[in-house]
Amino acid sequence: MSRGVVFAVVKNQAGVARAMRRLRRMGISNRYIELLTEIPYPPTLIGGEVSDTRLPWFTAAGLIGGLLTGLFLAVGTLLLYPLIVGSQAILSPPVVVIVYEITILGLVVMTFVGFVYENRIRRDPLRDWVVPANVDGHVLVVQVPPDMVESRVREALLEEGARILPVEEPERTRPEDDALVIEREAQ
Length: 187
Fold this sequence. Notes:
Blueprint lengths: L4 E6 L2 H13 L7 E4 L18 H26 L12 H26 L19 E6 L6 H10 L3 E3 L22
Antiparallel strand pairs: 1-3, 1-4, 2-3
Helix pairs in contact: 2-3
């Protein structure tokens, strides 16, 4: 049995919210709790913390950077390399189109960069858990903090209506240091 990790199956969304609130009242932070479900619940529905996003800042930086780059390429090129043809103005309609397109390009690129940055892989993931497919409900994985007793966490989850799943360590098929040997079948 794996020490320090509790798997609990909770039937519905309200049960998940109650269990997570109870765990937080016990002093377990969100970095020790992971919810495995097929439905992506927003944190406000399950009683979690809502984190601020920096995506608008990335979008604004892309807007400003794209606008400045577009102005430099369109207007700056005309000023650096003057070629007056038919008394055409510096800010003609083609210049506006170029500035617009490069501004939108900067906005889209920085929004994508911000999206990837905001959704990056967590710094300290709990583990990759494999849960049986026949589990009916939402699986709450709680890594018991070092200063807490596992039985208290189990009792709290049971009081909130959760069903505790047994955790088994997978058997090691080969030592990690040994090379993988593939044997060819005799024909």
